[in-house]
Design a protein that fits this description.
Elements: H1 8-27, H2 29-54
């Protein structure tokens, strides 16, 4: 990519990769599940980081009543 011009070979390579990805998703359930887990994990970590940046004290509460809180 040079001066906001995309070469036609790059378009064809991305199209082939996309078609391969769709084919694998249709034929292989474990690939689909692994991909969905990876995306869900990424989203969960992103949300936890956002919550920690807003109010870190939320993570210091011990919600499990079987163990006494150290605070």
């Amino acid at each position: 990519m040079h001066d906001n011009i995309i070469e036609s070979t790059a378009v064809y390579v991305l199209l082939i990769i996309y078609m391969l990805h769709i084919g694998i998703m249709k034929m292989n359930q474990s690939y689909e599940v692994a991909l969905k887990k990876a995306v869900a994990s990424y989203c969960e970590v992103k949300e936890l980081k956002r919550l920690a940046n807003e109010d870190i004290s939320h993570f210091h509460y011990n919600l499990d009543t079987r163990y006494p809180s150290i605070e």
